[in-house]
Amino acid sequence: MNSRALWLATVITLVVNFQAVTGQQISPNKPASQDDDVLRIKTELVQTDLMVFDKQGRFVEGLRPEQFELSVDGKAQPISILERVISGSRTEASQLAPALAGPVKSSDLNSPISGATDNRRIVFFFLDDLHLSESSLTRTRTALSDFVEKQASPNDQLAIVSASGQIGFLQQLTDNKAVLRAAINRLNYKRNTETFAGKTSISEYQANQITDHGDRDLFNYLVSSTINEYQLLGTKGGDNRGLSQLAVNMVKNRTHQINSQSRAATNDTLSVLLSLMQSSASLPGRKLVFLISDGFIADSRNTYVMEMLHQVGSVAAPAGIIVYTMDARGTFSDPEVDAGRNAFPDGMASGTSARMPSLESSAMREPLRILADDTGGRAILNSNSFTEAFQQAIDETSSYYLLAWRPDTEEQRSGKARIRVSVKDHPDFRVRLRRNYYAHADKSNSGKAEKSTSTNAVAETPEVALLTTLGALYPRRTIPTALSVGYMNSPDQDLVLNASMQIDRADLQLADKNAKKSEIDVIGAAIDDRGLIVTFKQMLTVVSDASTQNQPVVWHQRLRVQPGLYQVRVALRERSSGRTGGAQQWIEVPDFSKGTFGMSTLFLAERKAEAGDAKLSASPQSIGVDVDHRFSRMSVLRFQTYVYNAAQSPTPPAIEIQVRVLLNNRAVMTVAKTRVPTDTTKDLARLPYWSELALDSLPPGRYVLQVTATDLTAKATATQETHLVIE
């Protein structure tokens, strides 16, 4: 395949996969797609997640199985499993896979859970921009920026998704703040409101009440208001019927148009929300979704919309998604009572209010309540502080209980039974759980299994398999692949990306005694947010060798790029097995051509410390780059960077380096400031700097290495950060 064909195929694949999240239309009765080759097995247990709060709204720790009362369709049911789970912890995925046999099980609910100090949560901000006013959108953008800069944990994976799809390629999970900032900057006003310049306004709620509920009083009021506004009155003693009919037709046409637009926008919002949930179901652990909207109409007479609302709850349960809905308007106030405007056309002195603020507010917020209740979340409707609302939701969902039981009937196995959970002797405790529970599939070999093979299955060509893996929304992990990307300002090639990739030999078919080698096809692409793309293609040959069987396979690729925000994707396929793997990473490449002071990416390596070796290396010995950024506590971390465009006149550059290791945004290690040597290179515009850190004083966990360079002459600073895991 030539580079042009690869470019086109890659873009098409990315667009197709992206549309699966942002724009596909889903029928409420259409089941989620399944693999062609599936094992269908009767499950032994069904389960649900729940949270318990006291009067002060604090999560209740340490509850045991015997303290809960579970009823299914009004019948008491014994509890098989109770686990307390920490959201985003290392143990969460294993805890969500319940045992299929054995006595009642509960973890030590009072003991700390491993990894609780470095939790890695998944949070989606779903903006219903089809129903956000300009003022609400402005407040939301400000709140999202504040969250990204001040509230977000460095370990969290965040995504900003819009119902309209206007964020485009950037609405993907990431911990890269540059990507999140760019996504927020793309948010513009998208609400499709009625283009009517008159004073007789008609809201979506009013149009719904007239069109679907036949509210004659409201209709007559709007007709009278229209007549008065346009002075549709005949001469004294004349016939007014023709002019009155004109006003009637105007109101009818407007209400039908507004109601039709409202239904279309609601359908689009719920379709994209369902797509988001289905596409993120494969991600491990519990996911938190903030749905931010001004509300919308979900009339009980519109059965299609109500079905979609409840389908969200059905999809959210097995996907492990909890939804917190937020009314972006905050504390509701009726604009009709604004003294700064005259909402009634001149001459309307009846005192009749065309709007019913409390009823309209309740109707617009009802879908937000349904979505929150069905998924076990909460509707935050009267808060003027996004910051407090975000933090409340983060705190409330940081821990939860996983409860599982053995179903008695097929109806219970299907998740259609009604469940009720309470805590004995504690009527003051509030139990929050989702309306839907789900059966956890048994993937063991026990039980009756039927193998279902699609007759429409088509053999996937190697080329298609690679491109599909490259364009996948989330990396495929059949062959776990690590990717580390950094940029440098090279004197001969200008800006370049250095991509390092890694796989383990144990994941290849080299374990077969007859296998002497494994051939692997690799393709990759660096795509920026403007649609520019740089691609590469490789073929690896990994030879079976007992002396290297415990060493990972590491290879590299260099790409010339322009300044910009890039997502680097890599996909590989083992020829003998057909198995694939992929990885993705975002990186922002700055523009150094104008002399801006800055740094390259931090490049990491690991040096194994010898027994009794307490000293750090005094010279840069040659060691391989560490791709997956995972380090042993007994090793030494080496990092290297380049400082660009330091002030040189009239004296040599004076650059001071400050190194810190952060855990949850707090410094746990601070190294004394040092100077960058200037006698190691002739190119003073590109000063290399390297150093080492002993890791034995840090407990296992996820950390951030932060390196700050300060130009003492120009009074300029630059900072680079990178994540690492100590094991």
Provide the fold topology.
Blueprint: H1 3-22, E1 37-41, E2 46-53, E3 68-72, E4 75-76, E5 81-86, H2 92-95, E6 105-106, E7 122-127, H3 134-151, E8 157-162, H4 177-185, H5 204-211, H6 216-230, H7 241-279, E9 287-293, H8 303-319, E10 321-327, H9 357-375, E11 379-380, H10 386-396, E12 399-405, H11 410-413, E13 419-423, E14 430-433, E15 438-439, E16 449-453, H12 462-470, E17 482-490, E18 494-503, E19 517-528, E20 533-543, E21 553-560, E22 564-574, E23 580-589, E24 598-599, E25 603-608, E26 630-631, E27 635-644, E28 655-663, E29 666-675, E30 686-694, E31 701-711, E32 716-726
Parallel strand pairs: 5-6, 7-8, 7-9, 9-10, 10-11, 26-32
Antiparallel strand pairs: 1-16, 2-12, 2-14, 2-15, 3-4, 3-13, 5-12, 17-18, 18-21, 19-20, 19-22, 22-23, 24-27, 25-27, 27-30, 28-29, 28-31, 31-32
Helix pairs in contact: 3-4, 3-10, 5-7, 6-7, 7-8, 8-9
